[in-house]
Amino acid sequence: MLKKTLDLKETLIDKGKNSDINIDSFISLLQETCIKQNQETFTNSQNIEKLYLHAVLISAFFQLTEYSLQNWNRYFEHFKEISKILDIKTKQTEGKILELLVLHTINRVFNFTLKSSKIKAYIANNDSNPTCLLDDTFDINSLSKDDNKRLINNLTVKMKIRGEPAKEVWGDNDLIVCIENQNLIQQFCIISCKVSLRERVYQSVFWSLHSRLEGTGKHIFVTLDKGNNGKSEIGSRLIGEKARKTRNVLESTMDRVYVFRSEKEVNRSQVIKGFKFLEWDLENWAKDFIGTTKP
Fold first, then answer.
1. Which candidate, 184, 177, 98, places its Cα nearest to that of 133?
2. What is the pTM of this model?
3. Average pLDDT taken over every residue of the chain
4. Is the pLDDT score of 95 beyond 60?
5. Rounded Cα gap, residues 18 and 1, in angstroms
6. What are all long-range contacts of 9-17, with beta carbons under 8 Å and residues at least 24 apart?
7. How far apart are the C-alpha atoms of 287 and 295, rounded to whole Å?
8. Phi and psi at residue 9, in whole multiples of 5°?
9. Using CA atoms, how far apart are residues 228 and 233, in angstroms rounded to an integer?
10. CB 185: neighbour CB atoms within 10 A?
11. What b/e readout covers 206-244, taking b as 16+ CB neighbours within 10 angstroms?
12. Distance between CA 195 and CA 105 in Å, rounded?
């Protein structure tokens, strides 16, 4: 399934790279490609693989155009049509597809230059009580049993509740970015992905503070910032004007916030960056983690 999905993306990018692509031409290209290659249907794939397929197609669309909220919305306006071309049925789960887009981008799109180490992203097999971490093969054996046990233990927070025994809780760990160096794999960055902010931003803030206390790694926030009635919930920080409370909270608690809105809608800062800046940050944090300045 993974190879078939990646091959489809490669074909789309190769055919569309010298063209002026918009969502209509992208869909036409997808339909033409599936017909010409007599693509086997993805019907019998697992649901997570179908969602990953959409994430990979969005990645192809972004690479042919730009990473933006507008392009994300254009894709989802045609979600049913694209699903029909692919002969798959799945719910329009934007939050999970965003997570899988980031997973795919880190593992398959970013071009890290570290030669002695490998940066890789994982997701948990369960959102509340995981037993293993999965890469984009979605194989339960992506990591060894010992590595799974150690990493999950590192990322589980022990909560002391008054009048109750301490409990181990899995936090807002949508994605876990690890580095493999000298045959040892270790987490160094936790990513929270949110389509929009609303009250959910405070869940991520809560867990980011625990990450700092526990020393589990950088904690970053990736958001489309779809907004409230179309307006950004983060907003800009302008001289002589008060910034939004949400922006203040994010900039004071997160190591980074990556957004898909334009700089006109959300101006950048030391903390708030465009999504593509994630590649540079992960590489430099990985170098800091293993204590080297060499590639």
1. 177
2. 0.93
3. 89
4. yes
5. 28
6. 9/56, 9/57, 9/59, 9/60, 11/37, 12/57, 12/60, 12/64, 13/60, 13/63, 13/64, 16/60, 16/64, 17/64
7. 8
8. -65, -45
9. 6
10. 18
11. ebbebbeeeebbbbbbbbbbbbeeeebbbbbbeeeeeee
12. 17
CB 123 within 8 A of CB 175: yes
Handedness of CA 276, 278, 282, 285 (dihedral sign): positive
- Report DSSP letters for the chain, one per residue: -HHHHHHHHHHHHHHHTTS---HHHHHHHHHHHHHHTTPPP-TTS-HHHHHHHHHHHHHHHHHHS---HHHHHHHHHTHHHHHHHHT------HHHHHHHHHHHIIIII-----SSEEEEEEEESSSSS-S-EE-TT--TTSS-HHHHHHHHHHHEEEE--TTS--EEEE-S-SEEEEEEETTEEEEEEEEEEESS-TTHHHHHHHHHHHHHHHT--EEEEEE----BTTB-SS----TTSPPPHHHHHHHHH-SEEEE-S-TTTS---SSEEETTHHHHHHHHHHHHHHT----
Amino acid (1-letter code) at residue 51 = L
Give the integer Cα–Cα distance in Å for 200 and 222: 12
Q: How many CA atoms lie within 13 A of 137 on its CB side?
A: 6
Q: Please give the structure tokens belonging to residue 169.
A: 């809780």
Question: What is the rounded distance in angstroms from the CA atom of residue 130 to the CA atom of residue 108?
Answer: 24
- Residue 160's φ and ψ, nearest 5 degrees, are -95, 115
Q: Sorting pLDDT into bands at 50, 70 and 90, what band is 118?
A: very high
Question: Residue 146: is its pLDDT beyond 70?
Answer: yes
